[in-house]
Amino acid sequence: VIDHGQPEHSVLTTCAYCGVGCSFKAEMQGETVVRMVPWKDGGANEGHSCVKGRFAWGYATHSDRVTSPMIRDTIHEPWRKVSWEEAIGFAATRLKAIQARYGKNAIGGITSSRCTNEEVFVVQKMIRAAFGNNNVDTCARVCHSPTGYGLKQTFGTSAGTQDFRSVDQSDVLLVIGANPTDAHPVFGSRMKKRIRAGAKVIVVDPRRTDLVESPHIRAEHHLQLRPGTNVAIVNALAHVIVTEGLVNRAFVEERCDLTEFARWEAFISDPRHSPEAVEAITGVPAAEVRGAARLYATGGNAAIYYGLGVTEHSQGSTMVMGMANLAMVTGNIGRDGVGVNPLRGQNNVQGSCDMGSFPHEFSGYRHVSDDTVRALFEVVWGTALDPEPGLRIPNMFDASIGGSFRGLYVHGEDIAQSDPNTNHVAAALEAMECVIVQDLFLNETANYAHVFLPGTSFLEKDGTFTNAERRINRVRPAMRSQTGKHEWEVTCDLAAAMGYPMRYDSAAEIMDEIARLTPTFKGVSFDRLDREGSLQWPVNDAAPNGTPLMHVDGFVRGKGRFMLTDYVATEERASRFFPLLLTTGRILSQYNVGTQTRRTGNVAWHPEDILEIHPHDAEERGIRDGDLVSLASRKGATGLRAMISDRMPQGVVYTTFHHPVTGANVVTTENSDWATNCPEYKVTAVQVTLSNQT
Ligand code: SF4
User: Fold this and answer.
1) Confidence grade of residue 693 (pLDDT, cut at 50, 70, 90)
2) What distance in Å separates the CA atoms of residue 680 and residue 229, rounded to the nearest whole number?
3) 536-571 pLDDT per residue, tens
4) What pLDDT is recorded for position 594?
5) Confidence of residue 1 (pLDDT cuts 50, 70, 90)
6) Which atom of ligand 1 sits closest to the CA of residue 188?
7) Residues 6+ apart with CB under 8 A from 313
8) Average pLDDT in the 336-348 region?
9) What is the four-CA torsion angle of 69, 73, 74, 78, rounded to 10 degrees?
């Protein structure tokens, strides 16, 4: 912790780590941060914070920061520092040469959930308008893309239903595949407070998290399922509700599509979905499932909160729809204390999705093939746009290996470390003729880059982030850009060099364009945000003051839609050679692949990734606490230290993914969600052996 003494002034801004979106006052001495103080009037945090937001900001001025543009002809040569003009010209020349040789669809880009809405908006605009295709995807592809799909299918919009305050009205919390006390600490504390005040909690997770058991907390039910069997559990919960007469008929009849409901009711009533029938699949005693279903259906206001333990599966989208079915069949949607709520991992996952980062959707989740919507963008942007959806991130990698995709702009994401099956990603990047990385540091992906464009930290940014409760918060610059440019300016320069001039005088002007083109943002402007603090979308004529709770009088799609959610086992199976299942998660002090937190004092709290292994599995392998072990899958191998722990059931091991030296994604597979290609990070068959035996 660095304390530079007394501040001279302060700047109100937003934490750039998780999707809680805490507001902070950056107390400054000139351009030096003295300390970060959680803001008491912050809509998301009300004066609270965690060790990341409070202490882990030093990366912004770390000596590893690269602040000059750099280029090189091949990835085997050293970098050359050049001017912005030369770097942009070099990048544009290469991208145009690729398009001349391989066609306009041979290039694309990836937007970042770490960047502001305004930065994301101009990147996707550049790709659609200057690159001339829809090959734009977001790093949310690898985390919450199933949320987007599943909630849109059932409710009609791709976002969580509640504001954070709503949890104070909950009587039952159903927490699925999420560990909020580590990954969303400020909201996790709010949940714990509510539980201590009497709310009951049901946890669906292979791991015994703090919400299962910690001081003053004991879950009513812990459904400790085998990784990969979420859908079997959610169906079993729904089966109990339907077959035991716990359906909220009045809600269903008033608010839901009755034809779809009848179809679903017949489907879910089938005995194959009963807790007894799936017990052997999930490993969860049927009586626990029955008890949990009764509590969720009859315990008062029941709210679902979920995380990547839901989405990062081959049935991630199915599971999201299964949870929406549960909420609708019990009438737990559309008022305080209930709902279906994704806990977003990154600060601006919600925003990067809202801003049109998907290859098939413009901002506001409108399909690129919709002639009316496309015409609106064509008029404002002054160019014809492609009606064909573009490539998703994994499709870009496959197309690169196949020879038809040759140029990639990677904005603020370390895909070589964070995407699954690292060896496949590396081969795809190596095959490209132009990789442009825009980031704070020379990350792992930069090893494959030809152009490095330095990015700005949140302390230099001017713009907005949108948190997990759809709250649009201002991010204000506490110091000048260390690179001499705003990131959106760099994007505009590249677009212009590609032949499509894009010009804005400020981030506020970009937000004005977002508001003009995006119905859910119609009433948003920097002036309003500066006056009112924050706004929760939709903000428009129907909801001029924003929307804390969604689907109050009706679903966005009209009638709520029950979806059939058949359980299909993942292809990833344990075997004689790979007898254990690996699943992954986060720890409080660290963040994602650690690019930022490892460059702060927080690293002292978690200097390496650890493999948690059940005592029985450890004993069978002669592993003791602290031993170095090899972790191998069908895809790759890595080494790390073991910790004997009964938080995991026998047959399941667990690790974090914060340190590149471990590189947990070396072992993860290419399996992905059937609807969105979100990778199945949470189920990998592995073998674990003492290092000196391999
Ligand atoms: Fe930042 Fe999330 Fe911690 Fe809040 S809870 S301070 S947003 S990391």
Assistant:
1) very low
2) 12
3) 999 999 999 999 999 999 999 999 999 999 999 999
4) 67
5) very low
6) 5
7) 228, 230, 319, 570, 673, 680, 682, 683
8) 90
9) -50
Report the separation in Å between the CA atom of 21 and the middle of ligand 1, taken as the mean of its atom positions: 6
List the strands of the sheet with 107-111, edge to edge: 80-81, 70-71, 451-454, 434-439, 407-411, 107-111, 136-138
Hunting for tokens 């880059």 — which residue is that?
Answer: 449
Residue nearest to atom 2 of ligand 1 (CA): 18
Token pair for 583: 């699943």
Tell the residue nearest (CA) to atom 1 of ligand 1: 53
Distance (Å) of CA 268 to CA 106, 282, 288, 388: 45, 17, 19, 36
Bridge-based pairing of strands 9-14 and 200-204 is: unpaired
Q: In testing the pocket of ligand 1, which one of 114, 182, 184 has its CB within 8 Å of the most ligand atoms? A: 184
Are 475 and 481 spatial neighbours (Cβ–Cβ below 8 Å)? no
Whether the per-residue pLDDT at 589 is higher than 70: the answer is no
Task: Please give the structure tokens belonging to residue 262.
Answer: 């009848």
Kindly report the protein residue whose alpha carbon is nearest to atom 6 of ligand 1.
Answer: 53
pLDDT of residue 422: 78
CA–CA gap between residue 680 and residue 365 (Å, rounded): 24
Which of 14, 24, 45 best tests ligand 1's pocket when mutated (most atoms within 8 Å of CB)?
45
Could you report the per-residue pLDDT of 201-244, keeping only the tens digit for each? 999 999 999 999 998 899 999 999 999 999 999 999 999 999 99
* Alpha-carbon distances, residue 503 vs 122, 449, 488, 491, 561 (angstroms): 10, 27, 10, 10, 42
Tokens for 304? 């679902």
**Distance between Cα 493 and ligand 1 center (Å):** 33
d(CA 627, CA 649): 20
pLDDT band at 55 (very low <50, low <70, confident <90, very high): confident
Residues 312-324: tens digit of each pLDDT:
889 999 999 999 9
203: nearest Cα among 218, 184, 182, 187: 218
Minimum-distance ligand 1 atom for the alpha carbon of 14: 7
Average pLDDT, the chain: 93
Banded pLDDT at 496 (limits 50, 70, 90) = very high
- For residue 500, what are its two tokens? 């499509």
| Location of structure tokens 């035991």 | 244
Asked if residue 15 has its Cβ within 6 Å of ligand 1, the reply is yes
Phi, psi of 273 (to 5 degrees): -95, 0
Q: Let me know if 604 is exposed, middle or buried by CB neighbors in 10 A (0-12, 13-18, 19+).
A: exposed
Distance CA 48, CA 581 (A): 36
pLDDT, average across residues 334-345: 92
ipTM: 0.99
Residue 235 Cβ contacting ligand 1 at under 6 Å:
no
Number of CB atoms found within 10 A of residue 457's CB: 21
Ligand 1 centre and the CA of 454: distance in Å? 25
Q: What is the C-alpha separation between 541 and 539, in angstroms, rounded?
A: 7
Q: How confident is the model at residue 694 (pLDDT cuts 50, 70, 90)?
A: very low
Question: Taking 80 as the threshold, does the pLDDT of residue 384 lie above it?
Answer: yes
CB of residue 44 inside a 6 A radius of ligand 1 = no
* Per-residue pLDDT at 466 exceeds 60: yes
Does the beta carbon of 49 lie inside 6 Å of ligand 1?
yes
